[in-house]
């Protein structure tokens, strides 16, 4: 995993990785539950048709049409679920003692953005909803003075702990950049 | 027009499906180091696709694809 991370961040000798963050596992579990529900829909429709319209299954034209539609439906939701997993797995944030790196993956695009810790002005935590409160996950908004106003860690676990640590790191980095500190060693 | 038109439309869908699947697998291969997760998810995905296609093929075994498609005279009357 370390080699994998280094591939993205081009790690400097003084730089230490503090956090490697992905969206909370509960986000993936929510997608699995939705997937199971969508998977059940054709089976329920099949049951309904068998009970209410059994003639459909003997019809030589409607039956192949429905079978092909069901096949296309299953393939589509299977692919969507696979893409959702890739999106979950390949979207991550790396926090070092010098900067924050965001790697964002979509089907036809990939974005890697960076933010220097000393540019951070404010860090805000947001945990919306019952699930977020129960499972302790949420968003962390990082406000900077630069052109990019906000850097968002979406649905990460332990957002309060992460935001506190980022503020600490930003303070240390800021002291270094204003000449008042000695860490990180550059 | 025969009901093989359904198969043609399905084949077009399959072509789009293959393109998207290849993109997805490419992303896993290109951006994830060779790991058990990348292999496992790709394997599960391909196994699922194979299963869906096999079940579809088995269900459609006895279908006569040369039948004429006529909703008014054929489908409606055979339903009621």
Automatic annotation (TrEMBL), chain A:
One Pfam family from the record: bPH_2
Positions in coiled-coil regions: none
PANTHER family recorded: BLL0215 PROTEIN
Protein name (database record): YdbS-like PH domain-containing protein
Keyword Membrane assigned: yes
Species the sequence originates in: Candidatus Falkowbacteria bacterium RIFOXYA2_FULL_38_12
InterPro entries in alphabetical order: YdbS-like_PH (IPR005182)
Alphabetized UniProt keyword annotations: Membrane, Transmembrane, Transmembrane helix
From TrEMBL, chain B:
Residues spanning the membrane: 7-31, 37-58
Keyword check for Transmembrane: yes
Highest taxon above the source species: Bacteria
Entry keyword set: Membrane, Transmembrane, Transmembrane helix
Protein name according to UniProt: Uncharacterized protein
């Amino acid at each position: 995993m370390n080699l994998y991370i280094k591939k993205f961040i081009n790690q400097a000798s003084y730089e230490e990785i503090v956090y490697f963050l992905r969206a909370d596992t509960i986000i993936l579990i929510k997608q699995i539950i939705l997937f199971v529900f969508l998977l059940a829909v054709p089976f329920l429709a099949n049951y309904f048709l068998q009970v209410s319209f059994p003639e459909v299954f003997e019809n030589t034209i409607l039956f192949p049409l429905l079978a092909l539609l069901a096949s296309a439906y299953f393939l589509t939701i299977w692919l969507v679920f696979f893409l959702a997993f890739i999106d979950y797995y390949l979207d991550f944030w790396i926090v070092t003692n010098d900067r924050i790196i965001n790697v964002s993956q979509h089907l036809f695009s990939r974005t890697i953005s960076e933010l220097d810790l000393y540019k951070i002005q404010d860090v805000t935590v947001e945990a919306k909803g019952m699930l977020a409160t129960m499972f302790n996950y949420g968003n962390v908004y990082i406000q900077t003075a630069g052109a990019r106003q906000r850097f968002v860690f979406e649905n990460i676990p332990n957002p309060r702990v992460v935001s506190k640590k980022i503020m600490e790191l930003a303070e240390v980095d800021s002291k270094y950049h204003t000449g008042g500190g000695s860490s990180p060693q550059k | 027009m025969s009901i093989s038109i359904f198969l043609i439309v399905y084949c077009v869908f399959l072509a789009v499906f293959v393109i998207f699947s290849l993109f997805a697998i490419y992303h896993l291969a290109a951006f994830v180091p060779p790991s058990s997760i990348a292999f496992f998810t790709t394997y599960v995905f391909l196994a699922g696709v194979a299963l869906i296609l096999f079940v579809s093929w088995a269900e459609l075994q006895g279908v006569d694809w040369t039948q004429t498609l006529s909703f008014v005279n054929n489908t409606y009357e055979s339903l009621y």
